[in-house]
Amino acid sequence: MPVVWHSDCLLHEPGGEVWLGVWEAGTEVPERATVLLEALTSAGAEIIPASAHDDAALLAVHDAALVEHLRTVWEGWEAAGYVAEHGRRRVVPYVFPTAGLLSGLPLRSPTALHGRVGRFCYDTMTLVGPGTWRAVRAAADTALTAADLVAGGARAAYALCRPPGHHAGPAGHGGSCYLNNAAIAAQALRRAGAERVAVVDLDAHHGNGTQAIFYGRGDVYVGSLHVDPGAGWFPHYVGYAGERGSGEGLHANRNLPLAPGTCDSAWLEAVDVVCEDVAAHGAEALVVSLGLDAAASDPESPLRVSADAYRQAAERIGLLGPAVAVQEGGYDLAAIGELVVAALGGLWAASP
């Protein structure tokens, strides 16, 4: 199975995160990618270098202002003295233009960079450092290269993207995500000729960014099974079953919130619901947001899914058509190698 990789994905060093007001070690670390790469190489996967793509692929799903912010914010942060003079070694927002603040007034772009950051980043966990933009851009190129392979006839391809992307929406980023690699790949498949595309999100957390990008579109179905945000899990505000799309996208969005502690059988039942939707949608190509954090040992979610269930889920998805698998979450370094080999093995075996 072709595995697309770009070494620049290792350049993003968050240095931790601010969670509930306290700086602590984060789990979205470069070692996630090296563990996955080693496991796949050992399993015999073909490693293909990512190729550069034009920014038009990013701008097809993201506002230009977000892309430009991510491209320039670190250089601006350094130039303004936040690092040298104030000891702020990462870009962290501290004020957000919520409805409660604006109270119906127009959104402005603050003069101060530290005020402007919260316009684009919606949490305090998703920090920007000196290597972040290069890693983010490399991850997008990785997803696009995998989409090129599938559009060119490969039955499946895997994009080893880091940082992940499914929490990044049209105009904002968060949840350790910056640009939405899965959405970028899905749009690339549409541009390459697929009339209908489906995104299947297996990550333990709702892919709110992917949902937002395609919510009003009928040509891209988005199905997500994830821990119930109503039970107190990220992203808290979205990811509920009643969110079914709008306008032309009505019924092209499906959320299947799962109770904490959900194990293989119920998780696979949710996978089957999404697969039925994909078949009814008539998707000619798929994107799989392959989060490995639904696994029982993962520190970031309360789901209890096994490696065998990941393989079974991928087999069922693979039967539906050619697929681009895009790496999302998965934070147990001792387990993610086995999990990715199981999932991709199932996808590759079943893909037509």
List keywords for this structure.
352 residues, alpha/beta, Arginase, Chain A, 8-stranded parallel β-sheet, 10 strands
Quickly describe the structure.
The protein has eleven helices and ten strands. It is an alpha/beta fold and 352 residues long. The mean pLDDT is 97.
Description of the molecule:
- The chain is α/β, with parallel strands linked by helices and 352 residues long.
- It has one domain (2-52, 138-350): Arginase, Chain A, CATH 3.40.800.
- Helices cover 36% and strands 14% of the residues.
- It is built from eleven helices and ten strands.
- The chain has helices at residues 31-42, 56-59, 64-79, 99-102, 113-120, 132-151, 181-191, 208-214, 264-281, 307-318, 336-350; strands at 2-5, 17-19, 22-24, 46-49, 156-159, 197-201, 220-227, 253-258, 285-290, 323-327.
- The strands form two sheets. Strands 4-1-5-10-9-6-7-8 form an eight-stranded parallel sheet, sandwiched between helices. A two-stranded antiparallel sheet has the order 2-3.
- Helix 1 (31-42) crosses helix 11 (336-350), helix 3 packs antiparallel against helix 5 (113-120) and helix 10 (307-318) runs parallel beside helix 11.
- The chain starts with a strand and ends with a helix.
Low-confidence stretches: none
* Annotated CATH homologous superfamily: Histone deacetylase domain
* Secondary structure tally, helices: 11
SS strand fraction: 5-15%
Mean pLDDT: 97
Number of strands: 10
